Amino acid sequence: MQKKHILLAKESLKLLEKKDLGRIKISSILKNHTNTGIKNKTQLLENINSFFDFLLKKNLSSLESSSQKDMLFEIIMARLDILNSYRKSVKNIINYLRSRPHEFIKIIPSFVNSMILIATLSNIKANGIKGAAKIKGIFFLYLLIVYTWSKDETASLEKTMTTLDKYLSNIEKYLDIL
Q1: In terms of Cα–Cα distance, which of 56, 68, 48, 76 is closest to 160?
Q2: For the segment 17-29, what is each residue's pLDDT rounded down to a tens digit?
Q3: Distance from CA of residue 60 to its chain's centroid?
Q4: H or E element that contains 80
Q5: Per residue in 52-89, pLDDT tens?
Q6: Mind listing the pLDDT tens digit for each residue in 2-22?
Q7: Which CA distances in Å does 37 have to 41, 42, 49, 81, 105?
Q8: Quick count: other Cβ atoms within 10 Å of Cβ 90?
Q9: How far is it, in rounded angstroms, from Cα 28 to Cα 125?
């Protein structure tokens, strides 16, 4: 990820701590950033998501290999830890997308890329028809877990971890995806 995009993502997240995304003009965010290629809020949200992916890859450089279920658990929790560092901003984004489902639909491809990254890091093959089904399952799981995370006010995210573990066990047991 380019440095200019990292800086833009960080500044955007900082601004989103204080101000609702629906009330922010894209021009005010971009006034100090030239040549980013970002022209609207959808692209801004995709940049923020790419920033989270960048941090995830950076943070997982020393992850030990284990079962796909355990790897998926660790990687999703690592991503949620990153989101937790920007909790207020991310919750602001979630609220923005909840009230504007058409905007959420526009950024789904960015989230799919994130799910492919998560699958790849978890040693889950994401190619072919079976791979596409796995990515869809991870995407759905991720949405459920982010919802749980958004309601979890515990410092250690224990409710989120318990829920994720339960979902992963059910997926492994009933769907044979992992």
Answers
A1: 76
A2: 999 999 999 988 8
A3: 15
A4: helix 68-85
A5: 999 999 988 777 778 888 999 999 999 999 999 999 99
A6: 999 999 999 999 999 999 999
A7: 12, 12, 15, 28, 21
A8: 22
A9: 42
